[in-house]
Amino acid sequence: MQHHQNTQHNQPNERPQDPRFKTAHKEAWIGVALAVFNFVWWYGFAYGLGSKPVDEYTYILGLPAWFFWSCVVGFVLMSVITVVLAKFVLTDMPLDDDPAFRPYPAPPASPSPGSPSNPPANPSPGSPSNPPTNPSPGSTHDTNPSSQKGPNS
């Protein structure tokens, strides 16, 4: 029986990975860890303190201690942790195709029609790239003062 190794070869035409993927991957794991911590906190207090008979419950601010610690304190704690992570750990970055985050050279831009490197095939008469060859006397394109009609002509 023949085994084939599934290896990826780095071929010359492959582009390197966008560095934003590495950041997003790290931040996704932070989110997963935060969710797991939240669940462990909630489960530990809700079922740890809440598994006693109701007669043995202790109360904080009129709430059973298991509910106060798992839901009230847990919510406040998770909110604070989330804000701290968002302000100091997570990275704010654009998700569109931003050249600043492009690790590979951009493909050459094709010149747009009418650009200096690619003039239009048939420019319209009177355009800057194709001035009129035989303007009418007195027109704005006529620069010969002797051909302009004055009031005494």
What can you see in these coordinates?
The chain has 153 residues and is mainly α. The model has no long low-confidence stretch (mean pLDDT 77). The protein has a two-stranded antiparallel sheet with strand order 1-2. Strand 1 (59-60) and strand 2 form a beta hairpin. It has a domain at 57-90. Helix 1 packs antiparallel against helix 2 (65-88). The longest helix has 31 residues, at 19-49. The chain contains two helices and two strands; from the N terminus they run αββα.
Keywords:
single chain, 2 helices, 3% strand, mainly alpha, 36% helix, elongated, two-stranded antiparallel sheet, 153 residues
* Straight-line distance between termini: 104 Å
Q: Tell me about the largest β-sheet.
A: 2 strands, antiparallel
If helices are DSSP runs of H or I spanning 4 or more residues, what is the number of helices?
2
SSE order, one letter for each helix or strand: HEEH
Task: Sum up the overall morphology in one term.
Answer: elongated
Mean pLDDT: 77
Strand order of the largest sheet: 1-2
Strand content: under 5%
State the total count of DSSP E strands.
2
Oligomeric assembly = single chain
Helix content: 25-40%
Low-confidence stretches: none
**What structural category arises from helix and sheet content?**
mainly alpha
Gyration radius (Cα, Å) is 36 Å
